[in-house]
Fold:
Amino acid sequence: MPTPKQMEKLAAKGDRQAPSAAGPDAPLPAEYWESVLKDPRARASVAEARQRRLSEIQRHVLRISCQRCDRTVEIQTADAVRLYGANAVWKDVAQRLLDNTCRQRTGRHEEDGCWPEFETP
Structure:
């Protein structure tokens, strides 16, 4: 705990500093965007993630949700590899997982099935 004298010193130092212009409408600094773009997760788009093979995915749990019925299905990557093989494409596995448990059955081929919404792995 700082002493009262140290607290006064810190308060005086804070008063001398210019207020930050970082409001909700202020542009983000260039350093922020550089760090975002250097992040390896920024390189993989959702479309690229769909085409990955299960052996290439580093996440422990894979999650797919349906845009139609708002249902979410999760499976561990190890279980998915065991069931579908290491070379299976995530997009195909996700569609199978949703279709195997689909509750939206109308009898019309065009309307049956779930609509997958992919999260970036």
In short: Residues 53-118 form one domain. The longest helix spans residues 4-16.
